[in-house]
Every structure is written in C-alpha cells, then in structure tokens.
Write a structure and sequence with these properties.
Calmodulin-lysine N-methyltransferase; binds S-adenosylmethionine; 7-stranded mixed β-sheet; Rossmann fold; 322 residues; 21% strand; 2 domains; alpha/beta; globular; 10 helices
Amino acid sequence: MNKNALEDEPTKKRKEHEEEEEDDDENDFEKKRRYQIAMQRWAILKQALLGGKSSETCKSSVSVRRFSSFGLLQTEYLFSNNKEETWYQYTCADFPNFKMTIKHLPGKINANSLNGFNNTGNVCVWPSEEVMAYYCIKNLDEFRNKNIIELGGGMTCLAGVAVSILSEAQSVVLTDGNEESIDNLTDILNDKSNAELLRKTKVSSRMLRWGEGELDKDLRGHFDIIICADCLFFDEGREDLVQLVYDLLKPNGKCWMFAPKRGATFDEFKQAAEEKFHTLEEERFEKKIYDLHCKLKESGTDQYDPNIHFPIHLQLTKKDVS
Ligand SMILES: C[S@@+](CC[C@H](N)C(=O)[O-])C[C@H]1O[C@@H](n2cnc3c(N)ncnc32)[C@H](O)[C@@H]1O
C-alpha cells in the first residue's frame, strides 16, 4: 500500500510544499553548477587564446587536477624539444629493472584543441593511468601469450607501454581517439631505447574512436584483455564504449577499467555495461594503492578529492558465454 494514502490532507499538503521547495533547491543547485562550469569554460577559452596551460584551468568536477600522482612510478626529466614536448624516464621503485622512456605533450591548449577532438588525454597522465600501470606491472602473469588493447590511453598509454615492455604478451595495441595522442605514441614506440626493450612483443598504436564507423576486422573479437583508464565520464561516449568493449573481447576475455567516481558517471557507466557484462567493482584491488588513498584521505589535504582522484577497479566479463 502507498503509505501516503494514510496521511491526512494538511500533512499531505505540507509535504507536497516541502518537496516543491526541495525541487527548487535542487534546480537552484543545478543552475549554479552549470553557471560555474560555463564560467570555467570561458576562463579556459580566455587562457587558451592567451596561450595558457590547460592543466591549470581544469576546475570542473570532470577535470580538476590539483592532485597529480600517487607516486607509484618515478619520473626523471631527460630533455625537452623545441615544440615544448618533454621526454622522461619512468621507473618503479618496486620493480628495480624496469624503465621506459615516455614523451609528454606540453599540455597547452589552443583554439585548435578546443574545437577538435577531446583533448583531456594530452593534458597530463591522469592518476588512473598511473594506478593502472602499477596494477598491470604487479599482475604481469595475466598477460602471458595474450592479445591486449588499451582504449583511451591518451598521449602516453603508460600502462600499455609498460605491459609491452615487461610482459610476455603476444600483442599489444595502444589506442586513443585523439590524433595528437597517437602521433605522440608513435614517437614513444619509435624511441631507440624503448624499441630495444620492445623486441619480444608485437606492439602498435592506432587511432580508435568509440562508436565511429565499422570496427576493423582484425580487431573484432581478438582481445583477451582490454585496459582502460579514466574514460568513464563521457556521457556521449558511454553506450559506444560499452559496445566497443563487447565487440573487441573474445568470449572469455576481460576488460579492466580504472576510473574515479567523478560524480554519478562511474555508476552510470557500470549500469550501462550491466546489460552485456558481469561487472565486478573493487576499491581494494591493490593494498599499496588503497593504503595510500586512506593516508591521503586522513591527512585532510584539500588537494586530494577521492571523487576525482581515487580510481576504482571495474572488471567486465561477457554475460552470454556458455
Ligand atoms: C581523461 S583522458 C584519460 C587518458 C589516459 N587514459 C589517462 O588516464 O591519462 C580520456 C581519454 O579518452 C579519450 N576519448 C574520449 N572520447 C573518446 C572517443 N569517443 N573515442 C576514443 N577515445 C576517446 C580522450 O582522447 C582521452 O585521451
């Protein structure tokens, strides 16, 4: 029975009034939020036209980046070229013999990048990618003799490159939808010191946009493991990404996603994926990372906001496998 049916008329009216007020509050809140986002976009545009750095202007709930790394990997500056692109050597204290040479784009935005394809992967390496790289390095056995693809890997595909260097994967494909990211990845793969380390695994980079055109035949149903970091907050890309993961995976393949909650976006993606996939969501997927997260939270620093910085692990496996 509807419990409202038991309430007297004045109580009902008062509740209706309170609910209307709550709706108004919610509308006001939503209006303010949209206004703030619009103002931030204007600030980004202004800064872009003045040649500013995008990472300094990412202030919306989608893109704030005050906290930049869990410190799981270490970077040593190598050199910058005349395009302000910077090469770093990445190492990991927990894996003494591991190194990879990675180029970062300048992270500047201009009118081109504002008008062009999504540029968030060229701003920085996001904490989810760092965490995914560390998690992959800790679970190298999973990749032996397997075909791997990284989706939305941004300008470095850090995790995919680490897997290519360290694991005994059969093949690794590094992808993103942004052309500049792919050009940068090509430079990373062609770097002499990386090329030496990459001899054992077949590695390639290519542009792959979710939901655009027919999927290349060589990709369909080809992959044992898909890896993907911080790509779940795009409302427009949600259904396309779910479908793409489904189309790329072998029947018994699995997809490892790492992404912060970013408001409701993680849960919305998970919900969309549940039609086709079994989903497994884990916060404590790796003790070291969870402990770091707890320490940062306890420290009370306002630099660290788990909603946008702490990646949750979401594993997808296909439902309709007999
Ligand atoms: C927040 S960045 C994450 C990049 C990288 N994984 C990291 O964590 O540093 C999101 C990435 O998704 C890519 N992306 C967004 N929409 C896409 C689409 N429709 N197709 C392919 N890639 C897309 C962007 O180009 C960007 O590199």
